[in-house]
Write a structure and sequence with these properties.
Largest sheet: 6 strands, parallel
Oligomer: single chain
Number of domains: 2
Number of helices: 10
CATH architecture of the largest domain: 3-Layer(aba) Sandwich
CATH superfamily of the largest domain: NAD(P)-binding Rossmann-like Domain
Order of helices and strands: EHEHEHEHHHEHEHEEEEHEH
Helix content: 40-55%
Structural class: alpha/beta
Shape: globular
Strand order of the largest sheet: 1-11-8-7-5-6
CATH topology of the largest domain: Rossmann fold
């Protein structure tokens, strides 16, 4: 029977550590601050934004909330981002996606200062991540690596397969595992014989967006399985991209849904906010931490 990787407990430990550092920075006169912008009232986005506000409160980060109506123009949104980019008391800016269809997400994402891009979506930060010199680290992939490390699961030298190649999870997850000296394969919808590719993995990260797609036929005996998927049934039950019950007897370790990767994403966002404020403080003349 697989070991359950407890994302709730690990994320709580990360947040407690972050809270201590936030308090230490506050003693130096810096109140770590995150500005969250939401356009429209997408139900899932409302839940995510609410959870981010709770996390900020828990670790001592000040959060500023900008809830804009659906009909807000792109130019109005960009003007708000410009204002926040220029504010020295705002260290991180998060624009909740998805945006309404009349807005160009790519243009909006690029408009956020790379020094305040705590989601790590800006091309400058993505490029820095790719060459191994990250300013920020994508929250969900960073959470995956943190889960593995704090569960004493070795990445160095291991065969790692990432199923999914999105810019938000798949690609940065592969980069981070590579940086930890994993041997990484990125698999996707065009991969030939996906089952055989997955069965090579000592660490299998699944971020494909298809409910319960990965069954035991995809999993090597004793492998660690990280499920990034999140799907809600009509009866409000959550499940992932992995068929948890089917894979449980085969895997060596596995993340549940909920309670696995999800809590880590927000915990790592808090760490990125702290890091943004620390970078700002260190850029001020003569300051060193």
């Amino acid at each position: 029977m697989a070991k359950l990787i407890d994302g709730k407990a690990i994320s709580q430990a990360v947040k407690e550590e972050t809270a201590l550092q936030v308090a230490a920075l506050k003693e130096k006169g810096v109140q770590v601050t995150l500005a969250v912008i939401q356009v429209g009232a997408d139900p899932a986005s409302c839940v995510y934004v609410r959870n981010k506000k709770k996390a900020c409160e828990a670790v001592g980060i000040r959060s500023l909330s900008y809830e804009l109506p659906e009909e807000t123009s792109e130019d109005e949104l960009l003007a708000l981002i410009d204002e926040l980019n220029g504010r020295e008391d705002v260290h991180g800016i998060l624009v909740q996606l998805p945006l309404p269809k009349h807005m160009n997400e790519e243009r909006v994402v690029v408009h956020v200062s790379p020094y305040k891009d705590v989601d790590c979506f800006h091309p400058e930060n993505v490029g820095a991540l790719c060459i191994g010199k990250p300013r920020f680290v994508s929250c969900t992939p960073a959470g995956i690596v943190e889960l593995l490390k704090r569960s004493d699961i070795q990445i160095d030298g291991k065969e790692c397969v990432v199923v999914g190649r999105s810019n938000i999870v798949g690609k940065p997850a592969a980069q981070l595992l590579l940086a930890e000296n994993g041997t990484v394969t990125t698999a996707h919808s065009h991969t030939s014989d996906l089952k055989e590719v997955c069965k090579r993995a000592d660490i299998l990260v699944v971020a494909v967006g298809k409910e319960k797609m990965i069954t035991r036929e995809y999993v090597k005996e004793g492998a660690t399985v990280i499920d990034v998927g999140m799907h809600r049934s009509p009866s409000n039950k959550l499940s992932g991209d992995v068929d948890f019950e089917d894979v449980l007897p085969v895997a060596g370790a596995i993340t549940p849904v909920p309670g696995g990767v999800g809590p880590m994403t927000i915990a790592m966002l808090m760490k990125n906010c702290l890091h943004a404020a620390t970078l700002w403080y260190e850029r001020q003349e003569g300051n060193r931490l």
